[in-house]
Amino acid sequence: MSEDKTPVKVIAEIGCNHTGDLEIAKELIRVAAHVCKADIAKFQKRHNRELLTPEQYNTPHPVPANAYGDTYGAHREFLEMDTDQHKELIQCCEENGIAYSTSVWDLTSAKEMAALNPPLLKIPSATNQHYDLQGYLCENYAGEIHVSTGMSTGQEIVDLVNFYAERGRAKDLVVYSCTSGYPVAFEDICLFEIRNLMEKFGATVKGIGFSGHHLGISADVAALAVGRAMEADGKGHFTHIERHFTLDRTWKGTDHAASLEPDGLRRLCRDLKNVDMALAYKGQDILPVEQVQRDKLKWVKEDHSPAAE
């Protein structure tokens, strides 16, 4: 990798795949750090009474087989970690050499998590139009703010980036190409949206990323190639790839089926690192590895002239 190319950071999106168990959450951190070699372990923080209407809170989960409670609100509360537990997760990340982050879904959660001062906070696609939340972070949180763009119109994304630019925070902003679905079919991933984001906003924001909810790891490698090609053309920086992560895809819950297990995330981190080294121009016409073969194999006219025979 060239000295001026910053490695893409891989985010293991643990989310709620810990099934409400703090020890499973810590094990996911340890595996993401040491087995998979991911860069960031990310969770989610919700204040469910604020986020959900009373009707939504008290309605049964739409997929009973995935429910951890009698109502959707009870299900969400079961999976929720409180602030003290997030402090333990931060400490676990520090002990295992991986960065901590969390998505914040509402203003209360944003205030609670900003007070812990992690290196980055994420705005999920579902709340990227919640400007009270994002305005609070712009004014009260100095770290990077990452925002996904699933379920968003082109104008909503323009307005989003302008919101941060007007507040002097665009250079702390990372915008993610994302299709919201669990899992997403390959024809719906639409990787050239990375190109669109970099064309439009690459010069304005800190970086462009990709958040995938698909199966396998081939699309992530292709996302890296699209992002690096745009970067090579001076269209900003491609900085992050995010994938949901679980210890077992058969566990109960919505996100597990669209998540990578440890060996999948390990392979993804390995392949991204290797392919990133390959995404480069030649530094010279004949590379040293080629020179050895050229000396043995290359047909050169001078060597076959009558004078040489």
Structure description:
The protein is an alpha/beta fold and 309 residues long. Helices cover 41% and strands 15% of the residues. The chain contains twelve helices and eight strands. It has an eight-stranded parallel β-barrel, surrounded by six helices. Helix 6 packs parallel to helix 7 (131-140), helix 9 (192-201) packs parallel to helix 10 and helix 10 (218-232) runs parallel beside helix 11 (262-278). The chain is globular. The model has no long low-confidence stretch (mean pLDDT 95).
Indicate the overall shape: globular
Q: N-to-C terminal Cα separation, in Å?
A: 44 Å
For the largest beta sheet, what order do the strands appear in spatially? 1-2-3-4-5-6-7-8
Rg from C-alpha positions? 23 Å
**Main structural class:** alpha/beta
**Number of H- or I-type helical stretches:** 12
Chain-wise SSE layout:
Elements: E1 9-15, H1 22-34, E2 40-45, H2 48-51, H3 54-58, H4 72-79, H5 83-95, E3 99-104, H6 107-114, E4 120-123, H7 131-140, E5 144-148, H8 154-166, E6 173-178, H9 192-201, E7 207-212, H10 218-232, E8 238-244, H11 262-278, H12 288-297
Parallel strand pairs: 1-2, 1-8, 2-3, 3-4, 4-5, 5-6, 6-7, 7-8
Helix pairs in contact: 1-5, 6-7, 9-10, 10-11
